[in-house]
Design brief:
Blueprint (H helix, E strand, L loop, with lengths): L3 E2 L6 E2 L7 H6 L3 H8 L5 H13 L1
Antiparallel strand pairs: 1-2
């Protein structure tokens, strides 16, 4: 998958990369943890999920 830049140059969409794991973990808040994850994410778990997404 390649990076896609929208014409407005404000938003850039890109596939999840292992380099994004720290930002993902830093962005977890109480609501996300409670509703989606069921508990705080771990580096290993997020890396596994990102690899799964890349394979899909």
């Amino acid at each position: 998958m390649q990076e896609t830049e929208l014409p407005d140059k404000i938003v850039t969409l890109s596939p999840l990369r292992l380099a994004d794991v720290e930002a993902h973990l830093a962005g977890e808040d109480e609501l996300l943890i409670r509703r989606l994850n069921g508990g705080p994410g771990s580096r290993e778990g997020v890396e596994a999920y990102f690899r799964h997404c890349q394979e899909q």
